[in-house]
Every structure is written in C-alpha cells, then in structure tokens.
Amino acid sequence: MRRTSRFWLALWAGKGMGSILKLLGKKGTTLPGKIALQIEPQLMGMLSSAYTDGIIMVTGTNGKTTTANLLAQILKADGKTFAFNQAGANLVTGITGALLANTGWGGRSKVKMALLEVDEATVPKFCQQVAPHVAIVTNFFRDQLDRYGELDTTIKLVRDAIPPQTHLILNADDPLVAQFGRERIHTLYYGVEQTPDSKIYSTETREARFCPHCGAELVYTLYHYGQLGIYACPCGYKRPEPPVLAQNVKAGEDGIQFRVEPTSYSITLQGYYNLYNALAAMTAAKRIGIKDREIQRGLSEFIPQAGRMEQFILPQGAVTLTLVKNPTGFNQVLQTVLSRKEHPIRLLIGINDLAADGRDISWLWDVDFECLGREEERIQRIVCSGLRAEDMAVRLKYAGVPADKLHLEREMSNALEKLSEGLAGQATIFILPTYTLLFPTRELLANRQIKSCELNSRQHIQRGEG
C-alpha cells in the first residue's frame, strides 16, 4: 500500500501524542491511534503490511485477553518478538495505537509479527484493512446486547469478515464457533475430553440449543459448561474431532493440569474456561510451528493479567480479582469460588451500567446466583457495590442469600473496607467487578498490597530481623 503524505502526517501525529503521554506517565493505549486515524483512516492497514511473519487475531466473547496473553508468553518462550495490544485496547483505535508504538519515526516496523486482540464487533472493520494469517475464535455468548445486538448477528459479522485464506483456530466444543470450519480448508480445532465437573444433563443457560445449519435441537452426550460440550444433530452436524484435545484434566487451588498427547501441561489459572483459553493459545502456537517444549514452558510461566483471576496479598489475606460481564462467564467464576470448600466465602460484586459495561443489566437474572443461596452456610458476607448495587442485592435476595449477609456500599473504597470488616481467620475472598470498575478496583488493591508489604517490613525490623 503506497504511503502518502497523509500517512506520514498520521504516523508522526500519532507517535508524537504517544511520546507526550509517556512523558506525562500515562498509558495512552487509544488516543494516539484515534488522532492518527482522523488524519488517515487506512493507517491500520498501511502499518499492518510490514508484519511479514504474520498477524495473529484473537476474538470471541470470553477469554480474548487471557488467550492473547497466554499466547504471548508462549511466543516469548520461543524467543519471538512481536507487536501486541497487551492492555486489551481491542477496538480500531487501540489496535492502531499498538501498531504505532511498534513503528519507528521513519515508518519501519520494529518487529515482523503481531498478536492482536480484536473485539467481535470490530472484526469487520479490522479485516477490511488487515488479512490475519491466523484467527483464534474462542466462544460466543450473549454479551452487552444493547451494543452488539442479537448473538446471531455478531456471529455472522465475524464469520463473513474473516478472509478465506486465514488459518482458523476454533473451539470444537462450542457449536456456534465450530460451524466456522465447515467450508474452510485451513482449520485446526481444540477441545476438552472431559472435566471433573462435566455432566450428562445441564440446566445452565446456553446459547446453542439448536443446530446452526438445520435448526433442529442439538443432542448433547456431555456438557462442560454453557453450550460447550459433546453435541450432534440428526442432519450430520456434530462436534469435530479436535486434534488438540485436553485429557486427564485436574483442577486445584494452584491451577489446572491436563494432557495433550504426548505432553502434560499446567497453568496457574482457576476455572475451566481458562483451560479453553490455554488450549486456544496452544493450538495457535502449534499452527505456527512452535514446539511442545516451548509451549509447555510458556504456559507454566504465565502470570495472570489484570483482573483475570489476579491475586493480591492484603493484610486481611489473599484476594482474587476477576472481571464479570455476562451470564456464562459469571457462572464459571461462581463455580470456581464454590469449589474452594475449606474456607468460608466473602464476595464483593461491583456492577456498573456505563457504556463499556452494557446499559442493560437484565443479564444478571440469567446468572445462577441460586448456587450461592444453596451454600448460604458458607457465605459470610456479600458486599454489593457500583452504580447498580441495589439491583445486585435484590437479585441475590431472590436467589436465596439471607438479607443479613448482604451489604450495600456504592463506593468501591468503602466496599473494600466492608468486605474485610469483622474477618477472623482465613476466608475465600473474591472481588467481581464489571469492566468500568475493574481498573479502579485494581488500583485500590495494588495500593493496599504495597502498604501490606511495607507493614511486613516494619514488623521484621521491630522483631530485629532486618
């Protein structure tokens, strides 16, 4: 693509803004791209042509950020360098910003490979300018219907946008994703044989009751979670046999262990949805020729990213922070919480309804909060926070959580205090915010964690240990 005067003006304006933001100590993940695209709307495509070793796109409803970061760790273990929108800025402005950051003032890319997380609704705009070499599609669930519209619409947009020459990495256990590969030559599937929690019957909310090809009801012989499992339709559509198949799955507080023949793997992440994220990253790595040894090392060395089962050590004990944004993801987080049976449970649930969260919070009624009501003896306290704290408390009351265990604190800093109030002994503590509360909460926790370390240092000094 020919580089015009507008290209150079856009490049320098975007990089200039990035430099200013860096001097000010700000991240600047989207503003440089926004300014540059106003000058040259085709800049993303112009910059992408420099990545001759390939561009890997990661999209889907849940798990994009974790999958991308897992794959990034594998690529690093293999010695590869690449452009990456690691902060999760996955709209056109953020993607362009990431490419700008890896382009010099002279217009030359610093690396030859790119790993890009792309929002589902952004895939058509992205693929109009960029032809990814590999596209990972994680799953499809209802999410922010006021923004995305019906799920069928989102699926069609993504399916029609991905170029035919792109190598697809597909979740075989999700019938909404697996359908992408029926008429594609370059397709590689991943899946799970069985987890300790897989069932032959499920009452969970699931998006794919019906065959995406003939409309008949799908028949499941095994459910993993949501609509993910082993399925078939009388018309012949069925779960593809995945070459990358997780077997001997075991889960504990230290993470998940599994085997993909002939190698055993482990990840320091909780929740079976993170097993799928690891499989997606592994499959993409195999597609581009990375050896099992480097994949194994990359997965084992992975540290959870911001707000994705992220651990903080506070004076009150260990706290896990993880984003919640739709019914299926929330259900999986709750199952992870309840699987820790040795300690009582304290939760802080923060619900906002700003544009980035989704204005419509009716999805909370599709979450299986009744599982908390059934475990009320283990629940010490649930603090409801955020702009829709009252709505969250009402939902929990209807789920059977006793009113005397529910507390309202709309301000997150006060909610954190309420969460640990009266805590005696160990407890399983989880903080579950929607998107616009995630990073402010993370900052509060990080500050308290630093103070905790300082407190420990003072205690060592007082005891004469340093």
Descriptive notes:
By secondary structure, this protein is of the alpha/beta class. It has helices at 5-23, 31-39, 43-48, 64-77, 92-101, 123-129, 145-148, 151-161, 175-178, 272-287, 292-300, 327-338, 370-373, 389-398, 412-420, 435-462, and strands spanning 55-59, 83-84, 114-117, 134-137, 167-171, 187-192, 219-225, 228-232, 244-252, 255-260, 263-267, 310-314, 317-321, 345-350, 379-385, 406-408, 428-433. It starts with a helix and ends with a helix. Residues 457-466 have low confidence and may be disordered.
Fraction in beta strands: 15-25%
Q: What shape does the CA trace take?
A: globular
Biggest sheet overview: 9 strands, mixed
Helix content: 25-40%
Structural classification: alpha/beta
Please state the oligomeric state of the protein chains shown: single chain
Order of strands across the biggest sheet?
2-3-1-4-5-6-9-10-11
Query: In terms of per-residue confidence, which ranges show pLDDT below 50 for 5 or more consecutive residues?
Result: 457-466
> How many distinct beta strands?
17
Counting DSSP H or I runs of 4 or more residues, the number of helices is 16
Q: Write down the overall mean pLDDT.
A: 89
Radius of gyration, CA atoms, in whole angstroms: 23 Å
Tell me the distance between the termini: 62 Å
